[in-house]
């Protein structure tokens, strides 16, 4: 609460303020009358009205409704009232103990309910004589969660009966604005309503400002509090809800106020890239600049220009801006089942780019419902990585670009003004709900280079790739690739490049067990080049990110590089069901080895002698858990090479895992032993032999229940040593008694 108090040396003549009693949380007001003859000065709920405002003028407090009158002591009528400012000799003092004094007396609110009376009593240290002096704030406040970096706002509705209060992407729109008067947070959409607790649902709502008793405060731990509760943004995606919860130290209960952030940057110097990853002060200032730009007025220049020249690039001021109509297709959303893998999200690209600092309009039909509009999010830029000081590629190194370079915006029916401080490709993101299509109009954007495999000719591409937008989109049936336009201009055969990306995605689908009888997840994999990513030279996820300095996705060799197979393979892993317990970085390379074999008829494990090395280690007592990522991969690949089923055994394992019911899948994730058993049982059934001795050789323990289940099938036990040593003659298992059955495949 101390942050609300204006100190004596901060008070300025001519500044309109509220005089707020610290104990009752009410404002000194003229509640009746309008002149010294009939005015009643008493305490009332702070309501952002002029009869509660007082203007400092030397020692006087002039009344905000009529500055010809000032606050004076009055005998017999609540002890204070209004007097003529010109003739008054009264001189009030706001002292270091936060009392408003007149001589040896102080302004006091007696304890008797309803605590509307205000009197002058001899000064003391009681809370009944403590006051806050809060400047009348004509600037809106924004309340920003430090974990989600989004604002509290009214997501839908416009009055207490229908308003949904929750978290919104920062836009600076009136739905996210709050005007603070004392401890009341009045909504920018209609200041007759304010933020209030909803104890029935343990959330927040709007209620009438005039009758509200809600008293909010920011505590020393940067939590936004009301009574014994703290405002909390739960972690489950999409993180649009806000609740009341018992206070804790989690970042999801930490908040920033727009005014505090702005004040903290008054003397800060602009960042210069690159700067050290250890420089957390500059990092936090850069994040703050981003937040303030998001919330600043769109009618004025950006508060803090960004270093877009470093990345993602600039658009010339003379480049023509265009208006376009785009059809958004929400007719199919989400997935029709749980594929137990990282599935593509519902992103719809456009060939449009919003230049840095520009304001565009995304105009949705007024006939669209608020619920339908909330299913649509506008994303500016595909570069989703948020660089932080503890990011592996930043820690002990450098920030080579701005920590965040893309933005997302909520939209509503009608005109939505969107300004990007970084610039980026305009992408629409959909969430599940009603299925529909809708036409939207988009203004003040530029055309970006866009290539569609199978539709764009090479001649058209030669013209398209010269368009003035710094990032280019290339799309095929199975994937979208985002690259720097400077790199795109060097691509002479875009069809060849995109056919290769399509080819590896098709191989990944096959290795995961998808075919004509079971279609892969809907949607396309996105692969994005960036100037710096959070970890590694590339990492999986949606989108999959590739660090441009190591992997240029515009290069025809990149789709045929191990990194592409490896990172996209992570998206197909059934990690919590079995792939994790057998090694996340091991099992992912089942996909890599499959693609390498199909493309080049080679095997990295053979090339680096991993089969023989691992076999020797196991001979000398190494267990599976003691092995490195290559050793653990050898364990699975020994089984693959030893039986004619080959890759089909892993395809079937993936299919079987996808076929589990939700309850069966959840049960599997709860225990590592179940996951180990799950693979043992499935592989044994696929190859037609009990693999128990192989598990024993590698020291990989099985439950008795799993061993009994396979034994009851009457399967013959495979030999424990399935090692795939290069000294043996290449062949595949046809007879379990044949000593030559455990052999490597032929290398080129």
Brief rundown of the structure:
With 748 residues, this protein is α+β, with helices and mostly antiparallel strands. It is elongated. It starts with 15 loop residues before the first strand and ends in a 37-residue tail after the last helix.
Describe the structure.
With 748 residues, the protein is of the alpha+beta class. Helix 1 (258-264) packs across helix 2 (280-295), helix 7 crosses helix 10 (589-600) and helix 14 (648-658) crosses helix 16. The longest helix has 18 residues, at 494-511. The protein starts with 15 loop residues before the first strand and ends in a 37-residue tail after the last helix. Residues 1-9 and 728-748 have low confidence and may be disordered.
Can you give keywords for this protein?
8-stranded antiparallel beta sheet; single chain; alpha+beta; elongated; 40 strands; disordered C terminus; disordered N terminus; 26% strand; 748 residues; 6-stranded mixed beta sheet
Blueprint of the fold:
Layout: E1 16-21, E2 27-32, E3 40-44, E4 53-57, E5 60-63, E6 69-74, E7 79-84, E8 93-94, E9 100-102, E10 105-108, E11 119-122, E12 131-135, E13 143-145, E14 151-156, E15 164-168, E16 178-181, E17 184-187, E18 193-198, E19 203-208, E20 217-218, E21 224-226, E22 229-232, E23 243-245, E24 255-257, H1 258-264, E25 275-276, H2 280-295, E26 322-330, E27 347-354, E28 359-364, H3 370-373, E29 376-380, E30 398-399, E31 407-410, E32 414-419, E33 424-430, E34 436-447, E35 450-452, H4 458-464, E36 471-475, E37 479-484, H5 485-488, H6 494-511, E38 525-530, E39 538-539, E40 544-547, H7 562-572, H8 575-579, H9 584-587, H10 589-600, H11 604-607, H12 610-619, H13 629-642, H14 648-658, H15 662-669, H16 672-687, H17 692-697, H18 704-711
Parallel strand pairs: 35-36, 37-38, 38-40
Antiparallel strand pairs: 1-4, 1-12, 2-3, 4-5, 6-7, 8-9, 9-10, 10-11, 13-24, 14-15, 16-17, 18-19, 20-21, 21-22, 22-23, 25-30, 26-34, 27-33, 27-34, 28-32, 28-34, 29-31, 29-33, 36-37, 39-40
Helix pairs in contact: 1-2, 6-7, 6-10, 7-10, 12-13, 14-16, 16-18
């Amino acid at each position: 609460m101390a942050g609300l108090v204006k100190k004596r040396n901060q008070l300025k003549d001519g500044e309109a303020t509220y005089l707020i009693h610290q104990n009752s949380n009410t404002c000194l007001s003229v509640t009746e009358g309008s002149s010294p003859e009939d005015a009643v000065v008493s305490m009332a709920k702070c309501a952002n009205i002029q009869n509660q405002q007082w203007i400092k003028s030397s020692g006087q407090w002039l009344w905000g409704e009529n500055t010809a009158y000032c606050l004076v002591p009055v005998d017999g009528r609540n002890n204070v009232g209004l007097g003529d400012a010109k003739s008054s000799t009264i001189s009030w003092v706001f002292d270091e103990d936060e009392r408003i004094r007149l001589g040896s007396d102080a302004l006091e609110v007696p304890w008797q309910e309803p605590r509307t009376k205000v009197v002058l009593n001899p000064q003391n240290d009681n809370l009944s004589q403590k006051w806050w002096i809060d400047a009348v704030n004509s600037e809106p406040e924004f309340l920003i969660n430090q974990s989600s970096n989004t604002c509290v706002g009214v997501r839908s509705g416009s009055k207490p009966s229908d308003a949904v209060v929750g978290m919104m992407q920062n836009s600076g729109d009136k739905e996210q604005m709050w005007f603070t008067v004392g401890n009341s947070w009045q909504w920018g959409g209609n200041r007759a309503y304010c933020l209030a607790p909803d104890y029935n649902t343990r959330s927040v709502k709007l209620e009438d400002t005039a009758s509200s008793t809600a008293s909010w405060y920011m505590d020393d731990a940067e939590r936004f509090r009301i009574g014994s509760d703290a405002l909390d943004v739960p972690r489950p995606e999409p993180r649009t809800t806000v609740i009341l919860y018992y206070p804790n130290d989690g970042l999801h209960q930490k908040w920033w106020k727009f005014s505090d952030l702005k004040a903290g940057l008054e003397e800060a110097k602009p960042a210069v890239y690159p700067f050290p990853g250890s420089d957390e002060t500059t990092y936090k200032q850069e994040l703050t600049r981003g937040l303030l730009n998001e919330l600043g007025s769109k009618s004025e220049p950006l508060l803090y220009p960004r270093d877009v020249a470093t990345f993602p690039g600039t658009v010339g001021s003379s480049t023509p801006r265009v208006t376009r109509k785009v059809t958004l297709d929400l007719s199919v959303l989400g997935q029709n089942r749980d594929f137990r893998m990282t599935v593509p999200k519902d992103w719809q690209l456009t060939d449009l780019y919003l230049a840095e600092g520009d304001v565009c309009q995304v105009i949705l039909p007024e006939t669209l419902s608020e619920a339908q509009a909330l299913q649509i999010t506008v994303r500016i830029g595909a570069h989703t990585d948020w660089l932080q000081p503890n990011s592996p590629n930043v820690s002990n190194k450098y920030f080579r670009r701005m920590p965040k370079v893309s933005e997302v915006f909520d939209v509503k029916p009608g005109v939505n003004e969107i300004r990007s401080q970084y610039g980026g490709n305009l992408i629409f993101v959909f969430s599940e709900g009603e299925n529909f299509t809708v036409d939207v109009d988009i203004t003040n954007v530029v055309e970006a280079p866009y290539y569609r495999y199978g539709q764009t000719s090479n001649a058209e591409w030669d013209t398209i790739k010269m368009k003035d937008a710094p990032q280019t989109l290339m799309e095929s049936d199975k994937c979208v690739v985002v690259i720097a336009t400077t790199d795109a201009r060097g691509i002479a055969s875009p069809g060849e490049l995109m056919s290769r990306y399509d080819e590896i995605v098709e191989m990944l689908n096959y290795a995961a067990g998808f075919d004509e009888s079971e279609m892969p997840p809907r949607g396309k994999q996105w692969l994005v080049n960036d100037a710096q990513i959070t970890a590694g030279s590339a990492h999986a996820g949606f989108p999959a990110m590739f660090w441009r300095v190591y992997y240029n996705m515009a290069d025809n060799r990149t789709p045929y590089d191990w990194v592409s197979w490896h990172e996209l393979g992570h998206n197909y892993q059934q990690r919590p069901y079995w792939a994790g317990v057998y090694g996340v970085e091991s099992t992912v390379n089942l996909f890599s080895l499959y693609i390498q074999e199909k493309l080049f008829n080679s095997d990295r494990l053979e090339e680096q002698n991993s089969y023989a090395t691992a076999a020797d280690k196991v001979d000398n007592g190494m267990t599976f858990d003691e092995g490195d990522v290559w050793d653990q991969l050898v364990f699975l690949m020994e089984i693959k090479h030893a039986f004619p089923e080959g890759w089909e055994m892993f395809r079937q394992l993936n299919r079987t895992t996808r076929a589990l019911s939700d309850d069966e899948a959840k049960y599997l994730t709860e225990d590592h032993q179940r996951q180990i058993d799950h693979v043992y049982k499935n592989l044994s059934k696929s190859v037609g032999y009990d693999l128990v001795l192989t598990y024993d050789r590698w020291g990989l323990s099985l439950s008795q229940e799993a061993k009994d289940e396979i034994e009851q099938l009457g399967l013959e036990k495979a030999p424990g040593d399935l090692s795939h040593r290069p000294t043996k003659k290449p062949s595949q298992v046809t007879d379990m008694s044949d000593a030559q059955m455990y052999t490597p495949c032929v290398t080129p």
